[in-house]
Every structure is written in C-alpha cells, then in structure tokens.
Specification:
The complex is a heterodimer of chains A (about 325) and B (about 300). Chain A has about 325 residues and is mostly helical. Chain A has one domain. Chain A has twelve helices and two strands. Chain A has a two-stranded antiparallel ribbon with strand order 1-2. In chain A, helix 5 runs antiparallel to helix 12. Chain B has about 300 residues and is α/β, with parallel strands linked by helices. Chain B has two domains: about 220 residues, Rossmann fold; about 70 residues, Alpha-Beta Plaits, CATH 3.30.70. Chain B has a six-stranded mixed β-sheet with strand order 5-6-7-3-8-9, sandwiched between helices. In chain B, helix 2 crosses helix 3. Classes of the chains: A mainly alpha (about 325), B alpha/beta (about 300).
C-alpha cells in the first residue's frame, strides 16, 4: 500500500505583467457594464424580470403588426414604420423611465462611484459611458421592432424584390428616426436619475412628467367639439372647424407634449403624413421649430446630467 | 540635473474651501514602504488623499504621484489603488464579478481581469466566498473586498482610508496583518490614513502627522517610540515604603497606579533602586524604561 503524499504550494501574490489598456478599456468597461445592468445580465432573475417584460411589451406591437401584415396583407391604412415609433413611444418612455435609473442611481447610493472616479476615468467618461450603454439598449429595442416590421412587410408583398426596390429608403429612414427617438428617451431619464439615489423616485418623476405634459398640451392646443372631445382644428374633417382658446399659439403649445417631441422630428424624416392631432398642429410650424425644440430637450438634459456629475463630491 | 522621484510628493500643497483652510503649505515626500498619515478628525487627511487621487485640485502647490499630477492626467491613476472608509460596494453582485469589472475599469483586458480577480480574492482570504453576493458578506469580509478592489490591478501605491473602521478586535488584527503583508512582502507601497495610533504604530514604517492642515511631525515610527528617561517600577505592594526608601537614596519618585515612577539620571541608579526595593520589602513585577507611544505626539503642543 503506497503512502498518501501531498505537497503544499504557497501561491503567494503575483504581480500583474499583462497588458494595460488604460482609459479606453476603462470607458469600454463602463459601457459594457451599463448594457449588462440595463438588461439584468449577471444578476438574479428579479433583476432580469422587469427589462425582459418591458422588452416583450415594446416588441409586441411589431410582432403583431408583422404577423397581420404577413398573413392578411398590408393595406394602405396599415401602420407604417413612422407610425410604429408613435405606437411604441409610450412603452418606450415607460421602459426608459424604469430602466435608466438602474445605470446611475445604485452607483451613487452604494458609493461605487467613488471607486470609478479614482481610476483612469474622468467624470465625463463615466457619464458618456453610461449614456452610450443605455442608448445601445434603446437603439436595439427600436431597431429590432422596425426590422421585425420590415420583414413582415416584405413577406406580405406580392413581389418581394419590387417591394424592396420601392421601399428600401424606409431602412435608412427608420434607422435615423430610431436614433432620434432613442437619444431622446435615453437622455431625459438619465438626467433625472442624476438627482436622486432612489430609482423609484426617478422613474415616477419621468413617467409623471411625460403623462402630465399630454393633458397640459391638449388643453392649450386642442379645441373642444360639440361632443366634448378635444381635437385639433386641422383634424376637423367634415365636422365644423373649432377654435382652440389659445388661438394661433395653439400649434406652439402642441410642442409641450413631451412624448411626441421625437415623433415630430421623425415625421420630418418619413414622407407619410402623421394624422395625430398634435402632429398636425406642429406640422404648421416651420421645420426648424420641432427640430430646435428636440435639440434643446436632448442637449439641455444632457448638459444637466454632465454638470450634475461634475459637481459630485467624493 | 538629477531629480529624486518619490511615490508621493507634496510641494507647498495648499487647499482652501472658501475661507476654510484644509491644508496650508504642506511639504512631504513618501517613499516605498508603509507610511501612516496620522491626525485627528479635521486635520486634513481626507483632503490630502483626495488631492493625491486627483479628485480635487490644489489651491496652490502640487501633489504628485510618481512625478505625475493625477488631477491633470486621469491616466496616471492606472497604477494607484484606493480603499475608501465609507461603503463603496454593490450588494447585488458577486465579489468575483465586481472585482473583474473593477480590474477592467483600471485598464486590464477582460481575460486577464478574471484571473486577477480570482488571485486577489484569494490573497485577501475570500477564495471560497467569491461567488456569493457581496450583500451577504459580514463587515470584515466587505472590508476585505474593499482592499481587494484596491489591489486588483496590481498598483504600485495604495491609499487606505481608515481600513479597520467598523471591525471587531479580531477582524482589525487580521486586516492589519493583511495590509502589512501587502506592503512588506509584495512590495506595494501603502499610505495608511488613520486616527487610530495603534493601527499606525503596529504596521507603519514612517508616519506623517497632520494637525489643522499642517505637518507637525514626520519620521520613522521607531523614532517616536524610543525609550524615555522615565523608569516604571511595578510592584505588588508597599508602594509608599518604596517611595520613602528611594527618597532616602536621593531619588525622587511618585506613585502612578501600581507603579512607582522615577526619572532616570544614571545607570548607577539601578543599584539604588534594587536596594530600595529590598528595603521596602516590595515584590517586584517589572522594572523598565517607558517607551514613547504615538499617543504622545498629540499630547505635545503643536510645533513643539
């Protein structure tokens, strides 16, 4: 019988002699970690549940529309790529309002931010990394829906190649419009999240802000018809035209509806007319107005986000 | 012309917050080894650390880390480690995942980062626990993770801010032993900021004492813990008789608790003390010169 033998190794401490990639690697790490955090990757099922449910909810319209288009065929009245952004805008805002604070609030609440900012990473790098991470997630969400919808339309077409030849421009259009929508829905919730360490507060504030802006904008820009329904004077159709209380200023007040701000810019990218009442009012304004308003509402919160982190004291 | 490159160097370092002066014209150099930054609350320790981490800029003067100013170049922080006093750990991720991420944020590629995370967690004694969520850890284990994240990218210098805060005596001993091992065996220089003299005295080679924004003392720890000229004669009984017997031999003595205290004037005094103890019939427990402790630093008047 052989005697049991063993050897003790003291592994000790090893100095690192591998590559060091400095600030670029640090930025990349913040971005990748942000994407993982937004999607709940590497965490428990509880953390995954909300993003997955919201993802499903946001994708459902695209899947349903594609199935209908592919089976029954897309008529002229069928929702277009432009309409899709309008359909999902509310869901997208809810998604952003709930998920975006996850990227910023815990880092400040747990104090991890103090570890980030003593590494080869500036405040700007951190904020830009988190912003880029959430933009990646929202872009994936809006593009995925549009791709599904496009495939549905292609399958619904009598002649696939004819459809592609006639409608290929829809692809760069929905890519550009998707970027417009994603930047907007990324920046505002992140800017709000920079002011609180509680995710719930940030989410409630963003959702409340968007919800309140709808009736405020409607009261100031739409008129009430005989049935008590609010509508724009331009959507009167066969009915008697009505005049909003704010007169000519009504079209400006239509811009208050925050959820529709990126849609107004998207409407300028797609050739189809948007039949929503707010969109028709804004269409009366010079194009520079909705574009300028959009830029103000993205650059402004973007600056506020950066400035708030510049002031952070560790 | 040759320049000496120090691990840390403060040159005329001044930091003001409005009318409040946190640091004023501070000059010191820190070389390799374990250095203690000692001072009461509000002395300017945290401001000093923040300046060397590049989190704030000096009002005047400079704070250099291996010849670079971290507030001017974030890249220079790639070889610095920092363990803050306050909570800084996410509760919902595992220690292994957190350290892998922090290694990457320090510039280490993902494949190497995973290995470094495992190695560093083993070094701090959390090898078996690394796949548990940090939220489930005890205070002592969390302090170890905090130290591990400061070491995961193999820095040349680590700044530790009150590393034993919140630990029980056993945990404190373990943490100090770990820090000592890190500094002495692995060649990682350490600046340990603390208001606990025991911590500094037990592991540091050098100390810098800050009081009200000024450096009041600086030097080797041994320099501050030298023997004094005060002799402590610890006896079980007959204290008064011993004082009288010493007095008869021309030695002035006072009683301090269970000891008789004598100012040593010559080596010959030991014979007289021995005779006095015999005469007083006192049972001797200990006879030794008192050593300075770091506590004495704060008993002295500033700039004494």
């Amino acid at each position: 019988m052989s005697e049991a033998q063993g050897e003790v190794f003291d592994l000790g401490y090893h100095h690192y002699e591998g590559p060091r990639e400095g600030r670029m690697r640090a930025r990349k790490a913040i971005w990748i970690n942000g994407v993982r955090t937004a999607l709940g990757i590497g965490r428990g099922w509880g953390s995954k549940a909300i993003p997955v449910l919201l993802f499903i909810a946001t994708m459902t319209p695209a899947v349903v529309l594609s199935i209908i288009a592919a089976t029954l065929g897309a008529t002229e009245d069928f929702p277009s790529h432009d309409d899709y952004y309008q359909i999902i805008s509310t869901l997208l805002i809810i998604f952003s309002a709930i998920i975006a604070p996850e990227l910023l609030c815990p880092d400040r609440r747990d104090g991890v931010i103090s570890l980030y900012l003593v590494r080869p990473l500036s405040t700007t790098d951190y904020v830009a990394g988190r912003w880029a991470a959430f933009l990646t997630v929202t872009l994936a969400l809006v593009y995925l829906g549009q791709v599904v919808l496009f495939i549905g339309f292609v399958l619904a077409a009598d002649e696939i190649w004819d459809y592609l030849r006639d409608n290929w421009l829809d692809v760069p259009r929905f890519l550009l419009a998707g970027l417009v929508v994603a930047i907007f829905t990324t920046t505002i919730p992140l800017a709000v999240s920079a002011f609180t360490t509680r995710r719930a507060y940030a989410a409630a504030f963003v959702i409340g802000l968007f919800i309140i802006s709808i009736p405020v904008s409607a009261i100031l820009s739409l008129c009430e018809d005989d049935q008590g329904q609010r509508r724009s004077e331009f959507a009167a159709g066969e009915q008697e035209p009505c005049r909003p209380a704010t007169g000519e200023a009504a079209k400006w007040f239509a811009l208050i509806n925050l959820g529709a701000v990126p849609i107004h810019v998207s409407d300028l990218i797609f050739p189809e007319e948007n039949n929503s009442e707010f969109a028709q009012l804004v269409a009366e304004l010079p194009h520079i107005v909705p574009v300028g308003w959009y830029l103000l509402l993205t650059a402004g919160p973007g600056f506020v986000l950066w400035w708030q982190y510049k002031r952070i004291s560790i | 012309m040759l320049y000496t490159l120090y691990m840390l160097e403060a040159k005329g370092l001044t930091k003001r917050y409005g009318d409040v002066i946190a640091l004023e014209s501070v000059d010191f150099q820190i070389n390799e080894g374990i250095t203690g930054l000692l001072g009461p609350n509000g002395a300017g320790k945290s401001t000093t650390i923040k300046l060397f981490l590049g989190l704030i800029e000096p009002t005047s003067g400079s704070a250099e880390v291996i010849g670079q100013k971290p507030y001017e170049s974030v890249e220079s922080r790639a070889r610095l480690g920092y363990m803050p006093e306050h909570d800084c750990l996410p509760a919902s991720v595992t220690a292994a995942e957190f350290l892998t991420h922090m290694a990457q944020v320090s510039g280490i590629p993902p494949t190497y980062a995973r290995t470094r995370a495992a190695d560093t967690l083993r070094h701090v004694g959390l090898d078996e626990e690394r796949y548990r969520s940090i939220g489930e850890y005890s205070t002592g284990m969390k302090q170890r993770v905090k130290l591990a994240q400061a070491l995961v990218h193999d820095p040349v210098l680590v700044l530790l801010d009150e590393p034993t805060a919140g630990l029980d005596p056993g945990g404190r001993e373990d943490m100090l032993a770990l820090i000592k091992r890190t500094g002495q065996e692995f060649g990682i220089s350490i600046l340990l900021s603390s208001h606990l003299m025991g911590d500094v005295e037990s592991i540091c080679d050098r100390i810098i004492v800050l009081e009200e924004g000024h450096v009041t003392e600086e030097g080797e720890v041994s320099q501050f813990t030298q023997e004094t000229q005060t002799l402590y004669i610890e006896v079980d009984d007959h204290l008064e008789e011993l004082v009288e017997a010493l007095s008869k031999r021309g030695i002035t003595a006072t009683v301090d608790g269970l000891s008789v205290v004598v100012q040593k004037e010559s080596e010959e005094q030991y014979d007289a003390i021995r005779d006095a103890i015999v005469e007083a019939d006192a049972r001797l427990r200990r006879l030794a010169p008192r050593r300075h402790g770091l506590t004495d630093i704060f008993r002295r008047a500033p700039n004494e």
